Amino acid sequence: MNSGIAEFMQRVSERNPGQTEFHQAVVEVVESLWPVLEQFPEYRSAKILERIVEPERQLMFRVNWQDDQGEIHVNRGFRIQMNSALGPYKGGLRFHPSVNISILKFLAFEQVFKNSLTTLPMGGGKGGSDFDPKGKSDHEVMRFCQSFMTELSRHIGPNTDVPAGDIGVGGREIGYLFGQYKRLRNAFEGVLTGKGTNWGGSLIRPEATGYGAVYFGQEMLKTRDDSYQGKIVSVSGSGNVAQYATEKCLQLGAKVVTMSDSKGFIHDPDGIDEEKLAWIMKLKNNRRGRIKEYADHYKGASYTETDPRADSNPIWDVPVQVAIPSATQNEINSKDGQNLVKNGCFCVLEGANMPTMPDAVNHFIDNKVLFAPGKAANAGGVAVSGLEMAQNSSRMSWTRDEVDSHLQRIMESIHKACHETAERFECSGNYVNGANIAGFIKVADSMLDQGLV
Ligand code: NDP
């Protein structure tokens, strides 16, 4: 790390003590951007970097709710409104016990660059709560969502801030949140995306992140005259992103052999076909069961429990050519990265946000692995959220094919932007630098245009 970057990061660490995930996300971006800052002094004199790491606004609030037994619980709610240079703040809500300011700031920071890459007019934000929906009844989830939205509704709106889902926030939660917003404001408006298709949601929004990541991979594979046909793929997670990444891989002729949840992973050497995937979707989306049950149901498959304290995760030791980490941040460490490369993996698509730790990213790049960072590879979700906003504003709804072809076109254009930007800044094939620089330049130029605000 050069001394300029070290000094900058020292200031970021001092101003944001203990926020390790946020520091990790910032340093990765700043390392990519340094050559750009040296080439364009106007960004430095306008202190764009210093401004871009400082949220425009961060909200933290108390969320009280009562469980089915009448007991009172107190959670924390958050919304980070990171940057609005390109449009209203846009980014998901995460409900998970691990949620804190550091995780949400890293996600909001990444979101700014990701949204810029989509070509759509969206700023960046992120929010959520340390509430754990797991094991809660539908009534409890509804009461929590209503309480959370009672405060959040003062700070959001279709032209201000438009949240969506993320870990722990799917169609059910978006429904309860939207209902409460509508009641409080007496307004039926496009304030959330990921809505039900009967009441303003876009077709293909549930599929968009997973499909988009696979489309991005297709573009990368094309640069080596290759395709998904016959490839063995490992997917981690079994939630929204993982399910639809798996579905698209199958449609494009690949064989997906793993999926996981926070307790362990299944390995099915015969491949998770469409019927097995439908079974997983029911298990996870309707019954809210554990992935372990898959190995009881399908005899050819094995289940391995994962230990978060172990020095590697055995899911990344399964020999594959393509890996799509789609669960959570920091799920591929240095050893996992080495295992993947050693076993022949040459393409890694980040379905999740920042699932790969920095040493593993470097290992992939050094070994010429086609590595797609999350801010490019998983941008399909927010892109279709942007299309949902456009449909809401025009009071129209587009067909499945229309949305899917927009999504494919957007993923192709993100790939092109990353690829060409990497070439322009003499780091050909480095999609991390390509995504960071391409995303940054548009936001930075817009900040310059809008003056010191
Ligand atoms: P879901 O809640 O639908 O699924 C998350 C999956 O990851 C579940 O299988 C869950 O297991 C597993 N998981 C969660 N936390 C951990 C953990 N600490 N360790 C191991 N496994 C874990 O979330 P999504 O699929 O929506 O999101 C997955 C990732 O994709 C996140 O990083 C998210 O930020 C990112 N993303 C999502 C987008 C979207 O449109 N949904 C858009 C862009 C990025 P379990 O069931 O046991 O909790």
Describe the protein in words.
This protein has 453 residues and is an alpha/beta fold. It has two domains: 3-188, Rossmann fold, CATH 3.40.50; 208-368, 3-Layer(aba) Sandwich (Rossmann fold), CATH 3.40.50.720. The protein has 17 helices and twelve strands. It has helices at residues 3-15, 20-39, 41-45, 48-52, 101-117, 138-152, 171-185, 205-222, 240-251, 274-286, 292-297, 334-342, 358-366, 374-377, 380-394, 400-424, 431-449, and strands spanning 57-66, 72-83, 89-95, 124-129, 161-164, 232-235, 255-260, 264-267, 302-305, 322-324, 347-349, 370-372. Strands 9-8-7-6-10-11-12 form a seven-stranded mixed beta sheet, sandwiched between helices. Strand 3 (89-95), helix 5 (101-117) and strand 4 (124-129) form a beta-alpha-beta unit. Helix 6 packs across helix 7 (171-185) and helix 8 (205-222) crosses helix 15. It is globular. The chain binds NADPH dihydro-nicotinamide-adenine-dinucleotide phosphate.
- CA(first)-CA(last) distance: 31 Å
Bound molecules: NADPH dihydro-nicotinamide-adenine-dinucleotide phosphate
What portion of the residues fall into strands of 2 or more residues?
5-15%
Strand order of the biggest β-sheet = 9-8-7-6-10-11-12
Radius of gyration: 21 Å
Structural domain tally = 2
In CATH terms, the superfamily of the largest domain is: Leucine Dehydrogenase, chain A, domain 1
Unreliable stretches (pLDDT < 50, length at least 5) are none
What is the overall shape?
Answer: globular
Secondary structure tally, helices: 17
Main sheet makeup: 7 strands, mixed
CATH topology of the largest domain: Rossmann fold
